User: What shape does this take?
Amino acid sequence: MSDQTEAVPGQAKAGQEPARRTRADAERNRARLLDAARAAFATGQASVPLDQVARDAGVGIGTLYRHFPTREALVEALYRKELDDLCASAPALLATRPPEAALRAWLDRFAGYVAAKREMADALRAVFASGAVTISQSRARLTAAVQLILDAGSADGTLRADVRAEDVVAITVGMFTATPSIEDGRDQLERMFGLLLDAVRRPVRAE
Assistant: This one.
């Protein structure tokens, strides 16, 4: 397996196109490394070897270290990607679903986010301990995503206007805290999701 060379952007002298290709190659390699790391952590291994991640991504170990100099850097980047994907899904869901259905679908995606955190739990401890990622920062971003959905529901009259997004996030986190295994506790989670939706839904008044 040959390691791909990733030059510094702007290094090419013959024009901008080679530099653009270099950046695109680097971005693809980074994405492949994160995908490979996510799959490796999902296997439940106690310690995921970095050379395995590089091998599964189809790149050399040197490429991995250029993107992620330490194991903690890789775990931090993977955690941030999971959080980014979850938060970015809120407007995407609203574009294709009514607010209540978007919130329900977002809760399912939150379950995937929690599952990823549990798989990376040991590796994440060092990242949280370093202060590179904080729970308050993550909660703030999750709250903003939920607020977007609640605002849409309030605007169309389907969701209560007095519900606070931070309360929805706190309740949702509590659900998963009380559920040791997402797969084994799926039925209970479904029931709790239903209760949460009942709580935030705007009551229909009889004419």
